[in-house]
Recover the amino acids of this structure.
């Protein structure tokens, strides 16, 4: 997914509090002041490659961005945020019911991502591109439900680790001096918030690793179960949040305190989780954009 603040000559001061950019779909008729915030080309369910959800892939999103820029190239150099959250892998898991097939897909996704990142810099002319890494996928309720929400799925988490290691290599090769690209580490804060002192659900944050770093107490006040259990939970494993039967009766339960949950549904974090995670990298984005 591609979010762009092209042509918003993001001043260091505003980097921390950028208003939500207008969605590409709503661009017509948007007032100039809103358009000046940049544009959001992201499409739900999309991936670097075609996911089979019939959504615009990353390359098609950048095509639209490029077409939109024609005639008004970002003279100050634009800023783009590229978020890859695992839809490419989810599509494979859904199709083959096999996490290892998704692992095998990592190099293909990386080749596609590398090409699109290169293109954003070399062809579209972005001055700064922020790229997120993958959160611990095995801790999403999609995986933890099978484990009674007691721990994360180590195989899926190993997949996130592998994707993230590959992404580091891609960026190191594309941009050895870290001039254009910032790797925004979502994985560490998600893991830190999910993990706690009594349970060690995460494969990538074991006890000795934890004790070797200064213990930053989790700012996410919830019990272990709520970290791994969604606020909105379908009755059936094959169901989904928001599902209704023919009579319009809800086929899901909703929690009372979404802000106490890390995940909203089987794959999406809550607003509260995102706010807590974003807090951890505000300074890094600020520093990166002011250089
Ligand atoms: C991305 O989407 C475009 C337009 O639908 C398609 O032509 C292209 O093959 C897709 N690319 C990948 C890598 O899936
Ligand atoms: C998916 O695979 C698991 C074991 O790997 C199996 O328990 C489950 O029933 C399978 N689900 C479907 C829908 O085939
Ligand atoms: C989850 O709980 C059910 C019912 O208590 C139990 O039968 C099952 O073995 C548990 N599964 C795991 C992976 O802990
Ligand atoms: C670039 O950033 C990575 C972390 O994303 C870091 O490991 C590496 O040392 C940095 N390289 C330079 C030249 O600063
Ligand atoms: C735990 O973390 C330590 C320190 O990072 C590492 O050396 C060790 O291999 C890890 N152990 C496991 C089982 O992941």
């Amino acid at each position: 997914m591609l979010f762009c603040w092209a042509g918003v000559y993001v001043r260091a001061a505003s980097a921390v509090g950028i208003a939500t950019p207008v969605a590409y779909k709503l661009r017509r008729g948007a007032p100039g002041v809103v358009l000046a915030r940049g544009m959001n080309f992201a499409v739900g369910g999309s991936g670097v490659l075609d996911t089979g959800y019939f959504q615009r892939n990353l390359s098609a999103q950048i095509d639209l961005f490029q077409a939109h820029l024609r005639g008004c190239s970002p003279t100050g150099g634009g800023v783009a945020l590229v978020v890859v959250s695992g839809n490419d892998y989810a599509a494979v898991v859904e199709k083959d019911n096999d996490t290892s097939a998704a692992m095998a897909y990592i190099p293909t996704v990386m080749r596609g991502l590398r090409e699109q990142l290169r293109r954003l810099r070399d062809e579209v002319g972005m001055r700064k591109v922020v790229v997120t890494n993958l959160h611990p996928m095995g801790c999403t309720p999609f995986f933890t439900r099978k484990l009674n929400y007691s721990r994360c799925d180590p195989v899926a988490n190993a997949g996130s680790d592998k994707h993230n290691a590959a992404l580091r290599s891609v960026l190191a090769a594309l941009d050895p001096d870290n001039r254009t690209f910032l790797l925004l580490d979502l994985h560490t804060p998600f893991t830190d918030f999910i993990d706690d002192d009594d349970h060690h659900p995460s494969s990538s944050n074991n006890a000795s690793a934890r004790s070797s770093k200064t213990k930053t107490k989790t700012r996410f006040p919830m019990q272990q179960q709520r970290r791994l259990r969604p606020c909105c939970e379908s009755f059936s494993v094959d169901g989904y949040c928001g599902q209704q039967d023919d009579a319009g009766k809800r086929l899901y339960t909703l929690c009372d305190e979404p802000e106490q949950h890390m995940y909203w549904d089987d794959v999406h974090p809550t607003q509260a989780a995102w706010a807590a995670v974003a807090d951890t990298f505000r300074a890094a984005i600020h520093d990166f954009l002011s250089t």
Summary: Strands lie at 2-5, 22-23, 39-40, 78-82, 126-132, 181-184, 232-234, 252-254. The longest helix spans residues 154-174. The mean pLDDT is 83. DSSP finds eleven helices and eight strands in the chain.
